[in-house]
Design brief:
The protein has ten helices and no strands. The chain is globular, with a radius of gyration of 20 Å.
Length: 196
């Protein structure tokens, strides 16, 4: 009896493409996030990818959404068992920065794609982000709109600091560690005034 080994192109799934794209980015940088490069990584031809992903832009978007899910998983694990409001915020801030430092290329892709809650492919990720922040901000007993205000403030501070740091613009002494800690402490104070 003759055994036929299934061709990768026939068994290829969108998940395989996303995983291969992330590997390419992690090893070669953001410029490796393209249909041709990912096809080479999988050992297939580019047209095979287009059966599962409509364009290079769609591939980038799928990768960004996957990175967001991985980032949220890391963040959720980091706050397990924490109830204190200040400790929660400090933990999230340091987890976000650590993720950005460990995966700078993935972080740049993740934060470069705007997530629109009305778009079907983004909706579940947006809901997961909001649910995560509801958990982090629960001790403050915020309303829904106050939670959104707090999310925006925190994200702008975390991502702004990280982007400035990654761009090499923080060159003065003292250390950026001290500045980041001071920013977090200031944010903890500021968050309490959202209701006023």
């Amino acid at each position: 009896m003759l055994w036929v080994v299934p061709l990768k192109e026939k068994t290829l799934a969108q998940r395989d493409i996303i995983e291969a794209a992330i590997v390419c980015v992690e090893t070669e940088g953001e410029t490796a996030l393209g249909v041709n490069r990912v096809a080479r990584e999988l050992g297939i031809t580019p047209p095979s990818i287009y059966k599962h992903v409509e364009s290079g832009a769609a591939l980038r978007r799928l990768v960004a959404l996957e990175i967001w899910q991985r980032f949220l998983t890391v963040c959720c694990r980091s706050i397990e068992g924490i109830g204190d409001a200040s400790v929660l915020l400090k933990t999230v801030a340091h987890t976000a920065r650590k993720f950005a430092r460990s995966h700078p290329e993935l972080y740049r892709i993740m934060t470069a794609i705007p997530l629109q809650p009305a778009e079907p492919d983004c909706a579940s990720t947006v809901q997961s982000i909001v649910a995560f922040y509801r958990r982090v901000l629960h001790p403050y007993k915020f309303t829904e709109s106050e939670t959104i205000h707090a999310m925006r403030i925190l994200n702008a501070a975390f991502y702004g600091f990280v982007a400035t740091e990654q761009a090499g613009l923080l060159t003065l002494e003292p250390s950026t560690e001290e500045s980041y800690d001071r920013m977090i402490n200031a944010l903890i104070q500021a968050i309490q005034y959202i209701r006023q």
